[in-house]
Design brief:
The protein has about 260 residues and is an alpha/beta fold. The protein has 5 helices and 13 strands. Helix 4 packs parallel to helix 5. The termini are far apart.
């Protein structure tokens, strides 16, 4: 009988210790250990701080011991412009949220942006900067697209032309858009092979080509030739418009290297 009493006493002792812990973990007594302070890191430029607070609040209301940091962190990570989120608690009543924002590098297709870290994220719910270049291509070849873009920008910088768009289609063929502004953009067809040598050759010739046709826009350049380029020029501009503008006509030429 004494053995039975010892077992009962042991079970009661365990219950007295375990039940309060279970109660705390399930939110009981949240009003006695409330999270009173929410700290968010400074320097956020694109994340909506009010929306961030509203997202975290339901989780913080569970109290210090019952708050599920993983759930709160996952909820914050779904907000627009959030690249990475970290949620911590500090005794006795502080919940800390640290957010790293996406820094946009380029548009990717119609519905995504590419961050400076090379990550794709949706444009839904974000205000897209208007000066971003536009990329298209298979998601698995993001690094290749970015690498060629950076190289092409250096190639054409001396002529004052910027790379406004770069595309890699399903067949592996490259094309890009050059121009000082959107109004004088040139569509450049590069092809599947020798993309860098072709672009380098064209970049060397481009200032001379543009000086020879200073009153026209170079609408299209096809670089898929061994010894030259197939060029399509826009219509001649009126004398009162010395700077390039978009033209509607075409005049096919070949510029030899």
């Amino acid at each position: 009988m004494s053995a039975l009493l010892r077992i009962v006493a042991w079970v009661l002792a365990v219950a007295l210790v375990a039940l309060p812990v279970v109660a705390v973990l399930n939110g009981f007594g949240a009003e006695r250990w409330p999270l009173r302070t929410l700290r968010i890191n400074d320097g956020l430029q694109r994340v909506d701080v009010a929306k961030l607070r509203a997202t975290v609040l339901p989780h913080a209301q569970r109290g210090f011991f019952a708050v599920r940091l993983e759930d709160a962190q996952a909820a914050v990570a779904k907000l627009p412009w959030v690249e990475r989120a970290e949620v911590r608690k500090r005794w006795p009543d502080i919940l800390e949220v640290r957010v790293v924002e996406h820094r946009p590098f380029a548009r990717w297709g119609d519905d995504r942006l590419l961050s400076e870290r090379g990550r794709l994220f949706p444009v839904a719910g974000v205000s897209v900067p208007g000066n971003l270049p536009r990329f298209e291509g298979p998601e698995a070849r993001v690094e290749e697209v970015v690498a060629l873009y950076n190289e092409a920008r250096v190639m054409f910088a001396s002529s004052g032309n910027d790379v406004r768009a770069l595309a890699l289609d399903r067949r592996g063929s490259w094309s890009l858009s050059l121009g000082r502004t959107a109004a004088d953009a040139t569509n450049v067809v590069v092809g599947r092979s020798d993309a860098r040598p072709r672009l380098a050759r064209f970049a060397r010739m481009l200032p001379q080509l543009q000086s020879q046709q200073a009153d026209r826009v170079l609408a299209r350049a096809d670089l898929r030739y061994t010894n030259g380029f197939a060029l399509t020029w826009g219509e001649a501009l009126p004398p009162s418009q010395p700077s390039p503008a978009r033209g509607g006509g075409s005049n096919a030429q070949e510029g030899n290297t």
